[in-house]
Amino acid sequence: MNAAPRSFRTLPAAWRRLLLLAGLLFGALIFWADGGFEPMLSREINQHRLSVVLPVPDGTVQIEQTFTAARNGLAAVELLLARRSEPESDEDGRLTLQLHDEAGELIAERTLATGRYQHNQSFFLRFPPQTSSANQSYTLTLSGNEANPLTVWGYELDSISDGALRVRGAESDAADLRLLTHTQLT
């Protein structure tokens, strides 16, 4: 004879507590694996228009964008990546992003293995919130190795006040990067 399935309420109290605790631990594990409590960011510079793909920083080309933060708590810079071909499994390209403050101090640096990034993929360069970033100038620099196929989108019109785009080693019609900055309450 088959026994009828037992409902949760007919289980002994100790088993119910154990199952509830296991469920809570499982939920906490999923929450933690998904990033947990990430701080809320507020968009500051919102230059989201795009019309020009910039030259690829490939060892001979370097891209620099300056901008001035309006508020304290600058914590991330968001770019829209561009590439002319699909990623290859044996791709050995590297794109390096660096953010410096107006004194030349390195705030953040990240080197991307280019085979992991798609065309039109957003990328966030995150760093500890800059508590005194209001009215401070920053320089974002993009460089790469010879095998780098990644670059970023830009815009033909100069739309970032107190900022300038410089492309060293190549010509470009872009006046600014497609750039968004994010602040965190400090």
Main attributes?
Immunoglobulin-like; 2 domains; mainly beta; five-stranded antiparallel beta sheet; 12 strands
Write the topology of this structure.
Layout: H1 13-33, E1 42-47, E2 52-53, E3 62-68, E4 74-83, E5 94-101, E6 106-113, E7 122-130, E8 137-144, E9 150-155, E10 165-168, E11 176-177, E12 179-183
Antiparallel strand pairs: 1-12, 2-9, 3-8, 3-10, 4-7, 4-9, 4-12, 5-6, 5-8, 9-11
Whole-angstrom Rg? 23 Å
Calculate the mean pLDDT score and round it: 88
Q: Estimate the global geometry from the Cα principal axes.
A: elongated
Give the beta-strand count.
12
Main sheet characteristics: 7 strands, antiparallel
Helix content: 10-25%
Predict the CATH topology of the largest domain: Immunoglobulin-like
End-to-end separation: 66 Å
Q: What's the CATH C level of the largest domain? A: Mainly Beta
Order of helices and strands: HEEEEEEEEEEEE
Roughly what fraction of the amino acids lie in strands? Answer: 35-45%
Helical region count? 1
CATH architecture of the largest domain: Sandwich
- Structural class by SSE content: mainly beta
Number of domains: 2
**pLDDT < 50 runs, ≥5 residues:** none
Description:
The structure is a single chain. The protein has about 190 residues and is mostly beta strands. It has two domains: about 10-35; about 40-185, Sandwich (Immunoglobulin-like). The chain has one helix at about 15-35, and strands at about 40-45, 50-55, 60-70, 75-85, 95-100, 105-115, 120-130, 135-145, 150-155, 165-170, 175, 180-185. Strands 1, 2, 4, 7, 9, 11 and 12 form a seven-stranded antiparallel β-sheet that branches. A hairpin with a 4-residue loop joins strand 5 (about 95-100) and strand 6 (about 105-115). The longest helix has 21 residues, at about 15-35. The radius of gyration is 23 Å and the shape is elongated. The termini are far apart. The model has no long low-confidence stretch (mean pLDDT about 90).
